[in-house]
Amino acid sequence: MDKTEIIKISVIALIIVALLNAIGMSSNIHIRWVLKLFTGVSLFIVILYWKTIPYKNKLSDANLKKFEAVGNICDPIFNLFTNLPKIKLGEYTEMNPAPLVVCGILILILMML
Question: Is the overall model pTM greater than 0.70, yes or no?
Fold first, then answer.
């Protein structure tokens, strides 16, 4: 990883910590509702991106631009979990566990809110 990727990851981590800190220190119910909505939409986007990766070559130009924009956000997050071993599904089939981990973290955040 080069320095720009490390900086991006650090900024994302700081934003997440700041949001979680705001939840704990805030008694305002509206902030929690907004954070739940943001986390739910993020979870939906991650799942949609994860499931459309195999069909990237078949997307139209307009949808490909949207897919690449979401990929610029999701791929660095998925790359954080590249050290995890692949999940073996069959004799010749393996699955990347990174999207599962990211979805699990987002679900845990939703449960904590």
Answer: no
